[in-house]
Amino acid sequence: MNLIVVGASYRTAPVSILEQIAVAPAGLATVLDRLLAQAYVSEAVVLSTCNRVEVYAAVNGFHGGLTEICSVLGEQAGRTANELAEHLYVHYDAAAVRHAFRVASGLDSMVVGEAQILGQLREAYQAAIDHDSAGRLLHELMQQALRVGKRAHTETGIDRAGQSVVTAALGVAASALADDHECLLGIDCEHPAADLAGRPALVIGAGAMGSLSLATLARSGAGPLTVTNRRAERAERLATAYGATAVPFADLPAAMSAVDVVATATASTEHVLTREAVARAVEGRDQPLVILDLAVPRDVEPAAAEVPGVVVIDIDRLAASLRTGPAAADEAAVEAIVAAEVDAFLGWMRGADVAPTVAALRTRADDVVTAELRRLSQRRPDLSDEQRADVAHTVHRVVQRLLHSPTVRVRQLAAEPGGDQYTALLRELFDLEVPRSAQAGEVPDLEEL
């Protein structure tokens, strides 16, 4: 069994492509079913965030698994696999482990060191557990990735540069309201989100990203704050938690007209803010309206950016505006943690296959001993029960002693680079069949990770 990661992120694809590949929570089960229905894919976890869509999979063959995963992603995007190819990256075995650990630790994030990805990865893993699409390999990978992410944030200062994409986006919004064109061009963005103090703001959406947006706005001193959501009760709960005002979703146009900043982060598959709606909201305004579109697929119709007096900051524009990162020492410290953890995990991968193989070998030996003792009883009915017991005990001891050194040695060899060949050779030599059930993983309590 091999590990493969196939995905697209803000590094390789514009938001227009990401929103096509994006997997909404309501459609996640369907995508997992499509992946597991493929001949080469036996396990799958799908991570879909505002700036990346990735499939982590256990496959029976690289080329077959890659072709099938690309086909499923193409189907999700309404494109052919060839059309998506230039936007996708592929990591296999050791590189896949390294990528997973770098993602979990925030090294591959748009805002290097942001901690939000850990929660998103945990949710993706939990969804795979709920759908029974993660087996032994992905259980181990996801559990270790979550632990690596926690190590990175507790043992280094990697998250000092920025807590989340939302924090960075609000910093860019503050610069836009301050008319800092150099920052918006990505030359030097130093305006903190705190520059939004006293600015009225609206949050559209009451999910994880909407909640984070409202919390960050509250900490920055922005206000008054307003929140709206299609499900009014969720907006009301969120508003109560942060001293904001909840407004009905039907009153969205009026709410937009009264604020300087709009942060929208819904799970809608259609545009929440059209060009016409945005144009109406800025009629007669002197102050620009800054709209942060943190959703993938986008909540804001692209043409809305053409409306005079409106600044739309989506994932593409945000990526181009970010130039700061953590201190080199912190980043190097996390890279060292990742490298050590990758080596440890690869050792586990090389040795993981040997335990069921050794168990199968011992079972085969026990079967042979049992069959020969049965024949002995048939040929020598004159043996007493005590004599039969002595013979059985002696034969079992001989077999166990013969198997002890080879099985200990094969465990040691299997943990070394190229060690999987020893396990395969053992199976071939003794014609062993390892039950598929032996590959099942133990499902953890995610609250402990």
Class by SSE composition:
alpha/beta
Estimated helix fraction: 40-55%
The value of Rg in angstroms is 28 Å
How many β-strands, per DSSP? 10
Low-confidence stretches: 180-194, 437-441
Distance between the termini: 25 Å
Strand content: 5-15%
- Count of helix runs: 18
Major β-sheet strand ordering: 7-6-5-8-9-10
Mean pLDDT: 84
Biggest sheet statistics: 6 strands, parallel
The backbone outline, from C-alpha atoms, is elongated
Topology pattern, helix = H, strand = E: EHHEEHHEHHHHHEHEHEHEHEEHHHHH
Short description:
This protein is of the alpha/beta class.
Description:
With 449 residues, the chain is of the alpha/beta class. Helix content is 53%, strand content 11%. It is built from 18 helices and 10 strands. It has helices at residues 15-21, 28-36, 62-77, 81-84, 94-105, 116-130, 136-155, 165-177, 181-184, 208-220, 232-242, 252-257, 275-281, 315-321, 328-352, 354-379, 385-414, 420-430; strands at 2-9, 41-48, 52-59, 89-92, 201-204, 225-228, 245-246, 261-264, 289-293, 310-313. α13 (275-281) links the parallel β8 (261-264) and β9. The radius of gyration is 28 Å and the shape is elongated. Mean pLDDT is 84; it is low at 180-194 and 437-441.
Reconstruct the topology from this structure.
Elements: E1 2-9, H1 15-21, H2 28-36, E2 41-48, E3 52-59, H3 62-77, H4 81-84, E4 89-92, H5 94-105, H6 116-130, H7 136-155, H8 165-177, H9 181-184, E5 201-204, H10 208-220, E6 225-228, H11 232-242, E7 245-246, H12 252-257, E8 261-264, H13 275-281, E9 289-293, E10 310-313, H14 315-321, H15 328-352, H16 354-379, H17 385-414, H18 420-430
Parallel strand pairs: 5-6, 5-8, 6-7, 8-9, 9-10
Antiparallel strand pairs: 1-3, 1-4, 2-3
